[in-house]
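Researcher: I need the complex structure. Ligand is zinc ion. Inputs:
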Amino acid sequence: MDNIYILAIESSCDETAASVVKNGREVLSNVISSQIALHTQYGGVVPELASRKHIEKINQVIGAALSESGMTLKQMTAVAVTYGPGLVGALLVGVSAAKALAYGAGLPLVGVHHIEGHVSANFIEHPDLKPPFLCLIVSGGHTHLAIMKDYGEFEIVGRTRDDAAGEAFDKVARAIGLGYPGGPKIDRAAKEGNPHAMEFPRAKIEGCPYDFSFSGLKSAVLNFLNHEKMAGHEVSQADLAASFQNAVVEVLVNRTILAAKEYGIGEVAIAGGVASNSALRAAMTAACEKEKLRLFYPSPIFCTDNAAMIGAAAYYEYKKGRKSGWDLNAVPNLKLGEREKESAGGKS
Ligand code: KG4
Ligand code: ZN
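Model: Output:
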């Protein structure tokens, strides 16, 4: 069988990224231009600035991805792009670039769901991982427990009712003065702190054992901070970071293990930016060892936004004949398991 080379593009939030992926699992190049320095000044991602920066960087990033792979656009089998969910203006930059390149080179276009990309990041370094498996998806915008039943096919088992796990990290980091992006900063600060110094709530949702809720936890941290401030007490940033992180990690791990046991699934993967959290990786590893479950997680560079994961997901979409039409549009609130309907037949 001929090799399949996919040029993949990702621009859904604050990273402009492009990658060349061979046969869905071999990354030939992975170029990421991060906008963190730009958004740090504002304490979070400013959508309009993100779109403008994507426009500035996209051609350069795509050019670098092709040249690092040692291949040309003409040698690609298809062009893939994230078309949702994400910031609409940011997504449009990637979608427009992908359409123009694919059309110009006479290549098929494959629209990819960002979250399917995050899950597929696990395929890059684990050649033996194949569906079905249970996946905990924890990013800045999403928290899902889902079974990948087949490539690109999901059954959602649990989800957050309010904030995503990454969002909780970002909001708490801002409140305790660590700034943006919160997740990695809390991860680092927590290493010096006592995870049992403060007791924060672990929310349970009545009747939905696999759902999550993080807004109460965030409020509890803010209330605790205000209370201590009013009482004139010093609060240890490290203890607070460690105690908050411990509360998040405990619910993520407990619910994942519960779902794996209940659904009788022996293989567990984690995905998304928060999957690079060192405490989550350690706690999930220990819990999976205890329960005799096989655990998979991507290297940190493939956990946060990148285009290699989009190339991995696109390979399986392409093999299923799912190509997008030239009318592919950005879908900012695309749900997991949903596809753009009008072009499912592949008009390209
Ligand atoms: O997957 P991602 O790069 O973008 C989205 O699709 O949202 O995830 C970004 C999120 C942010 O909320 C960031 O704070 C969080 O992932 N994150 C982390 C860590 N690294 C990134 N959270 C906890 N610990 C980390 N080490
Ligand atoms: Zn993401």
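Model: Summary of the prediction. Residues 342-348 have pLDDT under 50 and may be disordered.
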